[in-house]
Amino acid sequence: MAERKINPVLKQALELGPTLVFFGVYMWIKDESFAFRGTEYSGFIVAALIMVPLLLASIAALWWLTGALSRMQIFVAVMVIFFGGLTAWFNDESFFKMKTTIVYGTFALILGAGLVRGVSLLQWVMGEALPMKPEGWMILTRRLALMFAALAIANEVIWRTQTTELWVKLETFAMPAVLFVFLMVQITMLNRFMIEPPDDKA
């Protein structure tokens, strides 16, 4: 079934909303602790647990409105639920923080596995949205695999060596911004590989 178009602002709000709510809730209660059934939980863990149902609700809304979900959305949702559950069960913030490493690392491995086979899995996912020659897709896939690997390593270094507050800020704003700028720069650099749509007037 073809994906239904929705207002792009609404789509962005649904996709980014849970992460922004997590950031806002964390900044609000970061210095607080909450007791539940004899166990004390930090503000970070509470914020992470609030994010899980919000993410599920946003994904359900996207599926209902568009009739489709990307494999990336489903994978990220599974990771958030799984590591959010581990975070609560063990009362340990590190599980939620390492989620980002595993997500970026998995993307790097998947793209890298395709490259070893001589194919661009990125083209398989984004080919319809971004018409480009196969050689362009191979270049973009190699570069993006390296970027995902670099982000995974950066996340490990940051959460293990810096404060939780700094990690939350970088996770919410800096890493997505770096990835977005990287993609925009790469698409511009690979413009020569773009396939022009056919001229209907010809």
The helix fraction, in percent, is over 70%
Radius of gyration: 19 Å
Tell me the structural class: mainly alpha
Largest sheet, in brief, is:
2 strands, antiparallel
- Total number of β-strand segments? 2
Low-confidence stretches: none
Q: Write the H/E string, N to C.
A: HEEHHHHHH
Mean pLDDT: 89
Principal-axis shape equals: globular
Beta-strand percent range: under 5%
- Intertermini distance: 31 Å
User: How many domains, in number, for the residues?
Assistant: 2
Instruction: Tell me the number of helical segments per DSSP (H or I, 4 or more residues long).
Output: 7
Task: Tell me about this structure.
The chain is mostly helical. It has 2 domains: 1-90; 92-194, no CATH class. It is built from 7 helices and 2 strands, in the order αββαααααα. The protein has a two-stranded antiparallel ribbon with strand order 1-2. Strand 1 (33-36) and strand 2 (39-42) form a beta hairpin. The longest helix has 28 residues, at 134-161. Belongs to the YciB family. Pfam families: IspA.
Keywords:
single chain, about 200 residues, mainly alpha, two-stranded antiparallel sheet, 7 helices
Short note summarizing the structure:
The protein has helices at about 10-30, 45-65, 70-90, 95-115, 120-125, 135-160, 165-190; strands at about 35, 40.
